[in-house]
Amino acid sequence: MTVRALISAAALCLATPLAAQTTLTTPDWSAPEASRFLEETRGRLVDPGALGEGADARAPARLSLPVLGLRPGFTEASPPPQPGALVEPGLDTSGIASWPACASRAATPAFASDDGGEWYAQTYDFGCVTIVVSGDRRTDPNVPNALVEELADRSGDVVSTVDEEDDPAAVLSVSYDIVRLNVPYVVTIECAKEAAGLCRDRAGHQLVLSRLVIVAGRPRP
Amino acid sequence: MNRIARAAMTAAALMLLTGAVWAQEAFRYHGPGQLAVGSGRKDDRTVYLRGMYFPLQAGPQHQNAHAYANSQIHPVAGPGNAVGNYAYPWRDTYCEKRSWDMPLCPGKTGHQGLDIRPQKATANAFPAFAMDDGVVASITNNTTVTIRANAGYVCRYLHLDRSSITQAGLKIGSAIKRGDLVGRVSNIMGGVPNTTIHLHFDCYKSISGKVVRLPIFASLIAAYRRAWGLDDLDRGGQLAVDPIREMGAFAVASSNDGTPVGPAVAAAADAALPKSLRTKNFGAITPSTEPAAWPAYILKWPGLIRSVEIRDAFGKIIPAFATDEAGVGLWWYWMVQRAGFGASGVVSFEKIALKYSGASTVDEPVVAKYVTAYSGAAERPGLSKQYFGRFVDRKESLDLADLEIRWRIAQTLFHNEAGRTGSVDRATYDRGVALADRILANGFEVGAVAVAGGTPAAGGGVGAAAAPPGSVTITTPAAVGGPTAGAAGGAATTVGASGAAAAVTPTPVLTGTASATASAGGVEIVVGGRYTVRVPPGADPAMVSALLDILDRRR
């Protein structure tokens, strides 16, 4: 045998290897908002334009998770717009006091997804604000030993920031790790320096999160 | 970890003493979770992203470029892009103090990623590379590039140069291959130059249906090691300990008196390091003679490496040492004994400068050079201000009995010799001082670790009969000559005793340049046909490390 064999032998003796296999979460399509979306899109697919630039014609049929995105005119108080009557993607910024004047309200997202339609990301460019929404059905069912305890009591949304100075006022990027409809999503808000107020405004972030709407996707085994 | 596993890991660690490791430059790192300030994740050495490509230019495939993972808020060499911040050792910054959520951190808040500086503080010069095959998930106006690996995890690259992303040909939704250019490292934050030249790199994946911001320092170490052609130490998803490069990996017994000292580091070959760091002679205690005529205390000093010949500005060889603690200890011994200050004496920077310069009076110009560096003047303070937090007059009395004052003096002097901060951390310094104190109290021949001449087993194998049960034993065959002076027939070294080794029938698990035999009685390792190490079940890693240390010195 070789030196590498010894190392391999050592590896066998050490901690449990991480399994590489992943599984797919099952979206809760029976939730009211998901049911409503499915009812409204019964028998037809949304236009690829609903997903954004870069979405190919087959993307709407391929996506097997609720694609959360931003649409103007939708607030908690009003139902989401008819998927078949899509207006230009954007964000209803009413009530978001920190929404900066330098930002536009409409933004056609740039779209990315995997071939299996289990993951997507939409990047909304509002100018001095960028919002990225992504969702992923693929998950690792094997919780590493080191994380068992921490993940056992995890609940609620988690917000993290890129802050290189330990200065909350210097935060120019925030990410929310959320679970909706039994699918984990990440919503990232990035701010140019002149839009920094938005990145510090947790209440404003909650309004953004509340205005996510299902724009595509369909159940698939 | 079971006993055999521990022994096997030790075997693997021992391999590191051979081959390419010694030929590489001095990559050093603190272990995962060891933050500069505050608490990181303890005992989590999980390599969450196995096989990941190192996200920055590094290693022989990239012009031998280096990269430096360390803190933005606790820089070792002053704020911003100071040259000294672009240096080893690496520090984990996951969980470093931040205000917002990070559920995996001890305080439930903290930094979710790692900050990695490129080789130099030059914007738009050093490329970043895709960590895996995947899809470009997003590119933002803040120049954040996000890649979703086909394996299901996601990583973000922040602070890149805007034009470099375009030049790399990246488009949202396009496929990207492992090692493809992502952009070049810059200082963009909030869309404008607004931070230091570094890459903020963080990764997450969905685990059990939840997004988890991963502690990736161990993954990054493994990736960097691969980039340099080193064993990545990924052992079944856990980062094994490298007793050579990981700082403070084990408490190693000194061959002098049992004082714990840190692992030896092969830094001497790194010409980019200051000489005082290359030699670990942080106080630059340098005799005026050639080594044959060096004072006895230097020749006897634990960990002295005679094979390293690095000369100072006057052409004198600077004694070099295998461990940081040995270098610190020599300095403290010199202060107490040779300079005559005593361990509880009262000094001033002027008095220290007088001794350092070798001058007869403080009026000689050579003294002024040191005094200016240490104290300076009120309107232009010297280095001591950085450590005392105020101007320290050249004649101000400084009490060596005060451990904090003593530490500040050491930092000032070490900084002057190295030309930068961060020669050693406080814990290492304390151990080095303790080593010197033991020698000052007990002399050079007292020790818990005895290196003794003896009769080796037939053929030079394992079996030093005098070894206590359960001890870790190393023997050297007579054919290649024992390293211990006067041990004509070979030598055996025995360290401590821990439990009883069972008599079992050995089972070969490896042969070759390095070989090992594992059994219920432990593991026996032969390195290079020269050294044989018996590691019994339940062996204390510190004992094993002591042997590694001894091997290191005898190479």
Secondary structure blueprint with pairings:
The complex is a heterodimer of chains A (about 220) and B (about 550).
Chain A: H1 3-13, E1 23-24, H2 32-40, H3 59-62, E2 67-70, E3 110-113, E4 119-125, E5 129-136, E6 138-139, H4 148-152, E7 158-161, E8 173-180, E9 183-191, H5 196-199, H6 202-210, E10 212-216
Antiparallel strand pairs in A: 1-6, 2-10, 3-4, 4-5, 5-9, 7-8, 8-9
Chain B: H1 3-15, E1 29-30, E2 68-69, E3 114-117, E4 127-129, E5 134-139, E6 145-149, E7 153-158, H2 162-167, E8 175-176, E9 181-184, E10 188-189, E11 192-193, E12 199-207, E13 210-213, H3 217-227, E14 234-235, E15 238-239, E16 246-247, E17 252-253, E18 260-261, H4 275-278, H5 296-299, E19 304-311, E20 317-321, H6 324-338, E21 346-347, H7 349-357, H8 365-374, E22 376-377, E23 380-381, H9 384-388, E24 398-399, H10 403-418, H11 426-442, E25 450-453, E26 472-476, E27 491-495, E28 507-510, E29 514-519, E30 522-527, E31 531-535, H12 541-554
Parallel strand pairs in B: 1-16
Antiparallel strand pairs in B: 2-3, 3-12, 4-9, 5-6, 5-8, 6-7, 7-12, 10-11, 12-13, 14-15, 17-18, 19-20, 21-24, 22-23, 25-27, 26-27, 26-31, 28-29, 29-30, 30-31
Helix pairs in contact in B: 6-11, 7-8
Structure report:
The complex is a heterodimer of chains A (221) and B (555). Chain A contains six helices and ten strands, in the order αβααβββββαβββααβ. With 221 residues, chain A is of the alpha+beta class. Chain A has a six-stranded antiparallel β-sheet. A two-stranded antiparallel ribbon of chain A has the order 1-6. A two-stranded antiparallel ribbon of chain A has the order 2-10. Chain A is globular and about 45 Å long. The model of chain A is unreliable at 1-19 (pLDDT under 50). By secondary structure, chain B is of the alpha+beta class. Chain B has a domain at 28-229: Distorted Sandwich (Glucose Permease (Domain IIA)). In chain B, strand 22 (376-377) and strand 23 form a beta hairpin. In chain B, helix 6 packs across helix 11 (426-442) and helix 7 packs across helix 8 (365-374). The longest helix of chain B is centred in the last third of the chain and has 17 residues, at 426-442. At the A-B interface, helix 1, strand 3, strand 4, strand 5 and strand 6 of A face helix 1, strand 5, strand 12, strand 13 and strand 14 of B.
